[in-house]
Amino acid sequence: AAVAVAVTGSSGVAAAAGLYRYLRDFCGCHLSWSGAQLRLPDPLPRLRAEIRAAAPGRYRYYQNVCAQSYSFVWWDWARWEREIDWMALSGINLAPAFAGQEAVWQRVYRNLGLNQSEIDKYFTGPAFLAWNRMGNLRRWAGPLPPAWHLKQLYLQYRIVERMRSLGMTTVLPAFAGHVPQGILRVFPRVNATRLGHWSHFDCTYSCIYLLDPEDPMFQVIGTLFLKELIREFGTDHVYSADTFNEMTPLSSDPAYLSRVSNAVFRSMTGADPKALWLMQGWLFQHQPDFWQPAQVRALLHGVPLGRMIVLDLFAESKPVYQWTESFYGQPFIWCMLHNFGGNHGLFGTVEAINHGPFAARRFPNSTMVGTGLVPEGIEQNDMVYELMNELGWRQEPLDLPSWVTRYAERRYGAPNAAAASAWRLLLRSVYNCTGVCVNHNRSPLVRRPSLHMDTELWYNASDVYEAWRLLLSSGSELGSSPTFLYDLVDVTRQAAQQLVSDYYLSIRQAFQSHALPELLTAGGVLVYDLLPELDSLLSSHSLFLLGRWLENARAVATSDREAEQYELNARNQVTLWGPTGNILDYANKQLGGLVLDYYSVRWSLFVSVLVESLNSGRPFHQDQFNQAVLQVERGFIYNKKRYPAVPAGDTLEISRKLFLKYYP
After folding, report:
1. What's the pLDDT at 436?
2. CB-CB neighbours of 597 under 10 Å
3. What is the pLDDT of residues 502-513, one digit of tens each?
4. N or C: which end of the chain has fewer CB within 10 A?
């Protein structure tokens, strides 16, 4: 007989989260970025009694402004729809809808009297828009073609419609005060100041103008933009603006800082009297010398209490609520940042996220109103996000070893002792970084070679090697599971990344002790065997292909010229990040094609320069090497090679081959 299970909720999201809970806890199913395991038992399990669940906080937030560029930039509607459905099933009820805003800005700028070339000198290319929106960057890799605006508008209509139909609150962008230089031509008496340069960019591509909060044009432009945006997309009354993201304000005077936040808020209420401002709290922990308690309080209190929500963006490592008396009374969301730049690399702070949100709720006079997931890039470390999503609904911490055992079983669709042991090992090692953990992948594999590279790990390398052995041993039973194959690539990749560090140390040691034969041996194995083998492993899985990232970029284009521009955007972002390696390798990825034609070529040059140095007796100069290797890095960006977007080779076989050769 058929079994009927009724799932209801206070909203579409709540009902979807209830459905996923049933699928997860009673049917043993699993959903993630890297795949789904949805083999339903027949008949469906009956519930003995009604199960009720309520989240302890009002909000479960998702998305980082940077992810719009690192992860979502080339998405079509089908990919967006999948993400929004995953969000609903995960219980996410608050998220940004940022697509298409440049089209609206362009309309506003044209109405204000700017010409197209002034607008083109302002917007960056698609892969860098996140930093244009925060006033960090202009022009780089631009301009934006007209077709880009049309396609993004079309996407945004569908995104907000889908999110709202599921009961999610959409967060729309608002005016933070940054303006194109053209505004000064049209309104010569406007009071605007140039901000300093951002990161390692000079004023060619940064130093954006910030309007004075007291200038009447601040309200005119801010309200004009928001009214236009609301007319286009409707509103749920929550708006995002970041005026000082990684930018030092012009004055530390508390009165000035209050005027800025008050001006931003008034430009929102001028268009929507019910406006609520959602602000990233990243700036407070990023520049703690500037943001002392008086400055933080001033910025937060420029807005009426309760009309702002602060994202405590990096709460798992550097919580701000603790030293600001819970944001001086403004509501906040406890967020897990976890990932920078969309880097690959097994990483987690499971103890911190298992206890942090509960401690924040118990904090004296806590103003916490929810939990959030705010990675800079997605499609990595699924386990950490599944865990954090589950914690958003819980009243107390989980027993992590038993949770991860069930996770492995659900993820692969069958209990397997070896796989469960592998996951418990990963949980206690690579996923349990404690203290202040900042997850930038600094492995020598993905960094420009030098004689001073960081090979420190926060865990025992042997635990990853053992997890690799255990996963491989369960390959005969689990090899048909797509999620298992993804994890096998990921763990093998991590083991290979560790091995690269070992070979690097051998290379450095051989060079420093003038041992040419040892240098040639270690360098030869690294460049001619380990890196090519890693590349073929990555090339065997569709989610680890450079070709997929590049073809997705080209697919957005409506002409060959656009396709070329978008592909250069995509290549630059994951490598040089700027014209001259300004934020070099920040967004490093381990992808089939990239390992062979970018990382491996760099290592080859490094080894040959060291060999040449020993042969000639001339010292190695890092500066000279950097100039030479920059040509190699640029060469990759402009190599015009088309990379396969379809995997090739047998993942299990390649991992086994690597294991037999390299398992320590």
Report:
1. 83
2. 16
3. 999 999 999 999
4. N
Look up the pTM and report it. Answer: 0.97
Alpha-carbon distance 594 to 36, whole Å?
27
CA angle, corner 163, sides to 387 and 342, nearest 5? 45
Q: Which residues of 423-437 are buried (b: 16+ CB within 10 A; e: fewer)?
A: bbbbbbbbbbbeeeb
Query: Which amino acid is located at 288 in the chain?
Result: P
What whole-number distance in Å separates Cα of residue 141 and Cα of residue 127? 8
Residues 482-662: name the CATH superfamily.
Answer: N-acetyl-b-d-glucoasminidase (1.20.120.670)
Q: Is 499 helix (H, G, I), strand (E, B) or coil?
A: helix
Whether the ω angle into residue 43 lies within 30 degrees of 0, i.e. cis, is yes
Phi/psi at 278 (nearest 5 deg)? -100, 120
For 209-223, give the secondary structure using H, E and C: EEECCCCHHHHHHHH
Query: Which of helix, strand or coil describes residue 206?
Result: coil
Which residue ranges make up each domain of the chain? 94-304, 482-662
| pLDDT per position as a tens digit, 300-335 | 999 999 999 999 999 999 999 999 999 999 999 999
Domain 94-304 shares a fold with domain 482-662: no
Q: Is the dihedral of CA 455, 461, 467, 472 positive or negative?
A: positive
Pairing of strands 209-211, 192-194: antiparallel
Q: Which whole-number Å values give the CA distances from 627 to 53, 576, 586, in the listed order?
A: 59, 13, 19
Query: Is there a cis peptide before residue 143, judged by omega within 30 degrees of 0?
Result: yes
Helices (H) and strands (E) in the chain, counts: 28, 13
Tokens of 299: 């910025």
The dihedral through the CA atoms of 622, 625, 631, 637 has a sign that is negative
230 contacts: CB under 8 Å, gap ≥ 6 = 172, 271, 272
d(CA 498, CA 590): 13
- Structurally, at CATH architecture level, domain 94-304 sits in Alpha-Beta Barrel (3.20)
pLDDT of 438 above 60:
yes
DSSP 8-state code for residue 179:
E
d(CA 601, CA 604) in angstroms, rounded, equals 5
Alpha helices in 100-235 (DSSP H): 101-112, 116-120, 129-133, 146-165, 182-186, 216-233
Which pLDDT tens digit goes with each residue over 481-501?
Answer: 999 999 999 999 999 999 999
